[in-house]
């Protein structure tokens, strides 16, 4: 049996003008812009301030190695970032779709957002972190963590390009692969730590063109207390369902409640199934089941004396037309928080 394409290919060849060479085939990968690895690397620098502006990395892998006394700012999203053998450096990384891996670094101060965070053979690092999964340290000492707190106009879009949610941040839930009995290889930075005292804004004219802010109220990532000891026995769970203004409503709610003296403990954005809703919302589940198909929910835990009543008042006053789940009582709130975050952590593999 003959080949189906044989006659067609032969006819095409015969119809080609005599003496004219057949053009080589063009494949999609031939038309891609060639990538120069040197554009995505800082290596062997000393006493320099360097960086990449928004749009200059555009999802590529990046490497930082053998740098000393440098200030390094990557104001763009990237695929992965590896930092090797750096000493006394300040490093800012925009959203990283995959992993950020520090190896054999010391005396560095960093602010970064990523899917996975790993530290190995390092000492004396300070990291203001947004991480979607549990941060991991190994064979490292004196590693201190704080919550990521940064703003520039392009940052929210870069989070989306990197596939990261600003609400999934486990910055304080550290796993130490090599614990030492009686010692703690990591700790949390003081809650009143000023990020600019650790990771200063750039001073070069090129990088100053990026409109930066480290104010907590402007941070793209909500500033949470994480696993610090709670100030009160009373917490409240608020769950916002997917819609056109969900993120804006979540931000507004955070601003209102923090402004009234309550503390944001943790946040989460996750998809829920009917059985998950039954477990978390219990008798109220039927009210929310139709909303689950619209997309992921955003959950916020607030803490402080009177948190439940405070959340209910704000939701009723400002968000009366928006369907939200709010803990009904102080007694129920603790169970609400535990039920939701246990489910969410299991689903996200934390």
Automatic annotation (TrEMBL):
**Coiled-coil residue spans:** none
**Which InterPro entries does this UniProt record tie to the protein?**
C-CAP_CF_C-like, CAP/MinC_C, CAP_C_sf, CARP_motif, NDK-like_dom_sf, Tubulin-bd_cofactor_C_dom, XRP2
> What protein am I looking at?
Protein XRP2
Q: Where is the C-CAP/cofactor C-like domain?
A: 24-179
Q: Where in the cell?
A: Cell membrane
- What interactions and quaternary structure are annotated? Found in a complex with ARL3, RP2 and UNC119 (or UNC119B); RP2 induces hydrolysis of GTP ARL3 in the complex, leading to the release of UNC119 (or UNC119B). Interacts with ARL3; interaction is direct and stimulated with the activated GTP-bound form of ARL3.
The protein's topology relative to the membrane is: Lipid-anchor
Query: Which residues carry the S-palmitoyl cysteine lipidation?
Result: 3
Which species is this record about? Tursiops truncatus (Atlantic bottle-nosed dolphin)
Which UniProt keywords are given for this protein, alphabetically ordered? Cell membrane, GTP-binding, GTPase activation, Lipoprotein, Membrane, Myristate, Nucleotide-binding, Palmitate
Function recorded in the entry:
Acts as a GTPase-activating protein (GAP) involved in trafficking between the Golgi and the ciliary membrane. Involved in localization of proteins, such as NPHP3, to the cilium membrane by inducing hydrolysis of GTP ARL3, leading to the release of UNC119 (or UNC119B). Acts as a GTPase-activating protein (GAP) for tubulin in concert with tubulin-specific chaperone C, but does not enhance tubulin heterodimerization. Acts as a guanine nucleotide dissociation inhibitor towards ADP-ribosylation factor-like proteins. Acts as a GTPase-activating protein (GAP) for tubulin in concert with tubulin-specific chaperone C, but does not enhance tubulin heterodimerization.
Enumerate composition-biased segments (Basic and acidic residues): 9-32
The residue range of the signal peptide is none
Q: Which GO terms describe its cellular component?
A: ciliary basal body; cytoplasmic vesicle; cytosol; nuclear body; periciliary membrane compartment
Q: Organism's domain of life?
A: Eukaryota
Q: Where does GTP bind?
A: 98-99, 115-118
For this protein, the record's SMART domains field holds: CARP
Instruction: Determine if Lipoprotein is one of this entry's keywords.
Output: yes
Query: A single Pfam family, by name?
Result: TBCC
Q: In which broad location class does this protein mainly occur, judging by the first location in its UniProt entry?
A: membrane
What gene is it encoded by? RP2
List residues with covalent lipid attachment of type N-myristoyl glycine.
2
